[in-house]
Amino acid sequence: MHVRTTINVASFWARVDRRGPDECWPWLGYVNPEGYGRFLVGSRTDESVTIKQAQLVAYELMVGPIPKGKALDHLCHNADLSCPGGVGCLHRRCVNPRHLAPATWRENTLRGRTRPAANAAKTHCDRGHPFDKANTYSPPRGKRECRACRLLNQRRRTKERRAVLCT
Question: 3-state class of 161 per DSSP?
Answer without folding.
Answer: helix
